[in-house]
Amino acid sequence: MPAKLSVVALSVVAAFALAACGQKEEPKPVAAPVAPATPIMPSEVLVKLGHVAPMTGPQAHLGKDNENGAALAIEELNAKGLEIGGAKVKFALLAEDDQADPKQGMIVAQKLVDAKVNGVIGHLNSGTTIPASRLYADAGIPQISGSATNPKYTQQGFPTAFRVMANDVQQGKVLGEFAAKQGFRTVAIVDDRSAYGQGLSDEFRKAAEASGLKVVATEYTNDKATDFKAILTKIKSTKADLVFFGGMDAQGGPMAKQMKELGIKARFLGGDGVCTPEFMKLGGVAAEGNYCSLPGMPLEKLAKGPAFREKFSQKFGADIQLYAPYVYDAVMVMADAMQRANSVESARFLPEIGKTKYDGVTALIEFDAQGDLKGGAISLYQYKGGNLTYLETMGGTSIAEVKA
After folding, report:
1. Is residue 300 classed as helix, strand or coil in its secondary structure?
2. H-type helices in 263-385, by residue range?
3. What is the assigned CATH class of domain 169-295+381-394?
4. Checking DSSP bridges between strand 267-270 and strand 242-246, what pairing results, if any?
5. pLDDT in tens, 11-24
6. What pTM, to 2 d.p., does this model score?
C-alpha cells in the first residue's frame, strides 16, 4: 500500500475507535467560500526569434554579420523592458547554421518550427530561404529576410514571407541600365547557378539587352568554386568589355583576381553579393576600378546610418560586412508588429507586419501585397583606393530620412 494511502486509512480507523469509546469531537469551524482568484499574468514572457545564416563555409563572414545585426537588435529591445499583452517580454535569439545549403536549410527550419519560435529572421541566401519559407508558412510562423533577393521568395504567395530590401527584379534592372550608362557595349555573364546568382543574372540580362548591350557569352560556375581560369579564358576570346557576375564575394574576389592574371581588360560588375570588404580582400589590386550595387542608400547618407555603424563597431569590434543593418531592421519590424498587435502570438501579430510603416536604419519600411519592400532603391559603387566609393542611387522611393 502506498504511504499516502496508509496514513489516510489509519486516520479513518482512529476516528471510528474514538466514536466507539463515546468521545465526542467538537465540530471545526467551516471556512467561508473563497471567490475564484483573478488569474495572475506571467511576470515575463519569452519571445523566441529564429535566425538562420551560413555560419560555416565560404560565406561564414556574411552569416556572422547577419547574426550580429540580429543580436544587436535583440539586445536593444531587451534593454527597453517592453510590455506586450500585459506582460514584460524578453527576446531570445535561436541561431542556426544552414551552411548556405538548401537541404541543411530545411533541416534547421524544421528545428525552429519544432521549437515553436514566434518568428524567423532569415535566411541569408535565396537558395535556402525559398524552400524553408514553405515550412514556416505551413506552421504560420512570420518570416522576414534581410538579404534574400530572389523574387520567387515572395512570389510564392505565402502570407508569412517578407523582405526588407529591394529584390533582384529591381536590382537587375538598375545594373543593366547602369552598364549601358557607363558606355559598355558587350558583356559576358557568369552565373553561379544559385537561386540568388541565377535570378540576378537573368534580370540583368533582360535589362542589359533592353538597354542595347550585346551578351557575347554566358558561363556557369558554382558557389563553392575558386578556380575560374577555364571559363575566363573563353570569355577573353570574346573581347567583351564587361564581365557581369551573379554570385557572392567568395567567388567574385578570386574571379576578378584571375581576370587580371589572364590579362582580361574588361571591367567586373556584380550585385550586392560582391559589394563587401571581403571582395576587396580576396581580389586585392584586381578589385580596383570595378563596380557593384547595394540595395538602399549608403549608411553615411541616412539619418540613422552613422550611429548604427558606430554602435555596431563598438559592440562587435568589426566593420559591417553587408547585410547587418537590414537584419537589424528586420528584427525591429517584427517587434514593432508585436507591439501594435499587443501580442507575441504569431497568428495575432502576423497581420500587423503587412501594415508596417517603420522608419528603419536602411529605409522607411512598408510592404506591398506580396511582402516586398515598397519602392526599393539601388545604389551603385566603384572600388577605388581600397574602398567602396558611392556613385549614385537609381530607382526606388523607400529611402529613410536622408541627412542634410
Report:
1. helix
2. 277-283, 305-316, 324-341, 346-353
3. alpha beta
4. parallel
5. 333 333 333 334 43
6. 0.86
